[in-house]
Design brief:
single chain; alpha/beta; six-stranded mixed sheet; four-stranded antiparallel sheet; 65% helix
Length: 571
């Protein structure tokens, strides 16, 4: 698992090879300046000051100022390119992840909550971006700086180096133990943060339901409770991180004191120079900074690798299986041949046999939860049959490509999906190219143009997230306008007019029947009265079709459809 995670990280770093190389070169130059500066300081003190050489003092000081200016320039470039590197990798991974998610089946979205998927696309990949930028920088250059600094110290004076490094192992052990505590705390924080995010997403997703039922206070209490749990876990993780920071500062102060005492003694004995002592103090300060970076790196690494692991979890899902045949002709027939469907070992449909031809008006009716929507779901290819087969023009539906099939299917459901855009953009989203006449026709036949009058910007008016500024009936008009604009071969109406008043419903249904008289119209509805001119009505119960015929035939049978139509309950 770890090797796969690293492989993914290196794959994306390799894609941004040029930017990565530029970033690394700049960081190497910065590290070189950081290491070289103490050497110049030593020379400045031991040569220029001791010998009272003003020219050399001026020369070395000028070189240091120039180096510091160059380092400033490199630092800015390093930050810019490092963040750009992380941003580009995050962008690529987000695009790949969203594409993968969009290619999943309906079952995938039943198992994964939208809040969880948003977290994977946004928060998780933020941590990956930080790992690619800060993590890479801190790991490589903190390690290099510490190693090279130790080598330089040994070259200066072995005794003073050993004395200086004496507290280092104890500090590293201390940091390791505290970091383990911090790691456990951060893991708990991430878990509680995900729970809080999910709770917030649920509140905002159901906000209108909460307001309609005066449940704001109840949900506020739930949020406060989850927020308190998060706050407590954050409080627990604060102490180890604070102890680490204070401990490393204590190490730095203690080491500097040791350098002054031991270095002073060796200076008196004429074993070291004052320049060496000052250089040691500067190098130890570099130690402190790099150790702190390495401590922070642990958390960056854990978060980033966790983000990549969660990324890989989604990327390893199989895409929904597409067909291999293009549907290039109009849909003339639909055949259900012994169709059955199971979900989690529960039988929803079994042995469904029917044939639908172009020009048919078909309805699936029955009690709630009986399998009507599942039947339509199979026709939409949102789900695949587990028994039997569905044939479109004699071709198994799973053999046809999604795009060529769904381009010939128009769907209006009771939950109409509205994007946060203008009215006209909500309508035209279903078709890439269309004429002005076809658009005007769609607006007229769906009576959507009546909505324009209520807004100052007419058809260009924004209707808000989920269509917050329009009614449920107006949302359905927009969905039906899409239908007229698309002009598909199969029209699926799933409680498509249940939010409209009777006048609008009758007028729009009349327009649909006239406009699509030579197409296949399939309806799911509890308003059985609108089915009087449907020539094929299928009544579902006990997981299969129990009655079928036209409206008049089913009424005259005085069977289950008759009871359903007249609201007669069995005793």
């Amino acid at each position: 698992m770890k090797s796969k995670t690293l492989k993914t990280l290196f794959y994306y770093l390799k894609i941004e090879g040029k930017l990565l190389s530029f970033f690394l070169v700049i960081r190497i130059l910065m590290t070189t300046i950081d290491i070289y500066s103490p050497l110049l300081v030593k020379k400045l003190i031991d040569k220029a000051l001791i010998n009272k050489d003003v020219k050399l003092l001026t020369t070395i000081s000028t070189i240091l100022v120039v180096l510091y200016i160059i380092r400033f320039y490199f630092a800015v470039n390093s930050q810019v390119n490092g963040k750009l590197l992380g941003s580009r990798i995050r962008q690529r991974m987000r695009n790949c992840l969203l594409k993968k998610i969009l290619m999943q089946t309906t079952e995938f979205f039943k198992k994964h909550k939208s809040g969880e998927l948003i977290s994977r696309i946004m928060s998780d990949l933020d941590s990956v971006s930080t790992l690619c930028h800060r993590g890479l920088e801190d790991f490589i250059f903190s390690f290099v700086t510490i190693i090279v600094s130790v080598i330089i110290m040994f070259l200066f004076d072995i005794k003073l180096t050993l004395i200086t490094l004496f507290p280092l192992p104890f500090t590293l052990i201390f940091v390791y133990k505290q970091n383990r505590k911090m790691k456990r705390g951060h893991k708990k924080v991430r878990k509680n943060n995900a729970i809080l995010s999910s709770t917030l997403h649920e509140i905002l997703r159901t906000i209108f339901f909460l307001k309609d039922n005066f449940l704001e206070e109840k949900m506020e209490k739930r949020f406060i409770e989850k927020n308190l749990i998060l706050s407590n876990s954050e409080r627990e993780s604060i102490f180890p991180s604070s102890v680490i920071a204070s401990g490393v500062t204590f190490y730095s102060n203690l080491t500097q004191l040791l350098i002054i005492l031991a270095g002073g003694y060796l200076y008196i004995k004429e074993s070291v120079t004052m320049g060496i002592i000052l250089s040691f103090i500067l190098l130890v300060d570099r130690f402190r900074l790099r150790i702190m970076r390495m401590v922070g790196l642990v958390d960056i690494y854990q978060n980033g690798m966790a983000g990549i692991r969660r990324y890989n979890e989604i990327m390893e899902f199989e895409d929904r299986k597409d067909g291999f045949l293009e549907l290039n002709e109009r849909i003339k027939t639909i055949v259900f041949d012994g169709v059955g469907f199971k979900y989690r070992d529960k039988t929803i449909l079994k042995n469904i046999n029917l044939e639908i031809e172009r020009g048919d008006r078909v309805a699936f009716v029955g009690k709630s939860g009986i399998g009507k929507t599942t039947t339509v779901s199979l026709l939409k290819r949102a789900s695949l049959v587990t028994e039997g087969k569905i044939l479109i023009n004699g071709i198994p539906i799973e053999d046809i490509t999604y795009k060529s099939y769904l381009n010939r299917v128009g769907i209006v459901e009771q939950n109409d999906y509205i994007i946060n855009d203008s009215i006209i953009d909500n309508i035209t989203i279903v078709k890439e190219s269309f004429s002005e006449d076809s658009l005007n026709k769609a607006l007229q036949k769906s009576y959507t143009n009546e909505i324009f009058e209520k807004f100052e910007k007419k058809e260009r008016s924004e209707i808000g997230e989920g269509g917050i500024y329009i009614s449920s009936g107006q949302k359905q008009k927009i969905a039906i306008a899409r239908l007229f604009l698309k002009s598909p071969d199969i029209i699926i109406l799933d409680e498509a007019t249940n939010a409209m008043d009777i006048i609008n419903e009758k007028a729009i249904l009349k327009n649909i029947k006239e406009e699509f008289s030579d197409k296949i119209i399939i309806a799911i509805t509890h308003r059985l009265g609108i089915l009087k001119d449907f020539n094929k009505i299928y009544l579902l119960d006990n997981e299969t079709i129990i009655e079928n015929g036209n409206f008049q035939e089913l009424i005259e049978k005085k069977g289950e459809f008759y009871k359903l139509y007249h609201g007669i309950k069995e005793k």
